[in-house]
Amino acid sequence: MLRACLPKPEAVGGGTASFYQNLRSFLASAGIPFTDRLEDDWDVLFVNSWGLSFRTALDAKRSHPSAKLLHRVDGSALDYGREAIADLRQARVNLLADLTVFQSQYGRHATTRKYRVIRQAGPVIHNPVDVERFRPEGERVPLPGKVRVCSVTHSTNPRKGAAALYALAAAHPGVQFILVGRYEGLPALGNLHFLGYADRDALPRVLRSCDVFLMLAENEACPNVVLEAMASGLPVLYRDSGGTPELVGDCGRPVESDTFADALGWALEGRKALGEAARQRAVERFSPGVVFPRYLEALERCPRLPLPRRWDWPGLLRVDPAILLSVARWGAARAAVRLGAGDR
Predict the structure, then answer these.
(1) Distance (Å, rounded) from C-alpha 141 to C-alpha 154?
(2) For residue 265, how far is the Cα from the chain centroid?
(3) How far, in Å, are 44, 225, 282 from residue 272 at the CA level?
(4) Cut 0.90: pTM above it
């Protein structure tokens, strides 16, 4: 029987934590044993992007000579506005992978063509969403206004689109914008309603209490919040960027600042039909019972690959020059900070 190792992610929120929660629930329901301890017995090690160091992954694979390493790739850190050192880390871990899974077509493009990070080919398997927890029916929360647009982010990364959202709120005072998660520099606008962090019990209540979901992030490979909104029966208005268009299909529209009003009117007019279509799409394409068997099938098909020899690593690790330049700048900045601290 398959035994899985799922090292605990450091993040308390966000997509990685949601993925592992959904995966653990699926494995438990399927009777597949799993552990979060690398020293236990297991047949497959799940590694997320840059979440496990190369040395730790190498030691784990050496100590489990028949096991496979599955590398789940989100996207390029540099593409997404994070420190490029994360791309170098996931590029090194990918040298050890027996199976590479990309979270979207865009994520594969960003890490193999737009930026050269991942050397292996592999299937695209979109993220799952808990369609029992996130559903149109259920408890709601009282929210102000007649037109409520929801936006959720667990990061203050500028590419999450907070500035564009604030500009829309200023331009459309009759629309109530419901914000969940982490936002900085909130302007004093009467139609911005910041609810703070919402856990997996509170977030479904907020989503189903709104009319439309708004996603303005750039270059995000497979945003879980979009899937959660769709499962909750919300049409999605989004920036035409990253993997979001793959997820939404015909259940929403791309928007810019000058098309937001028309797109919102379209979404509100077709609210019932669009919401039903979004829910159906989430259930049929992104439910755990659809997504995770694809992981198991891919694992069954892939062979255990030999570990690269140490002297082969430099030739295999062909990382995009833009990433190496960014890493060099990052290292120089850190060195300057340490030098300055030493002078004091």
Answers:
(1) 20
(2) 29
(3) 43, 20, 16
(4) yes
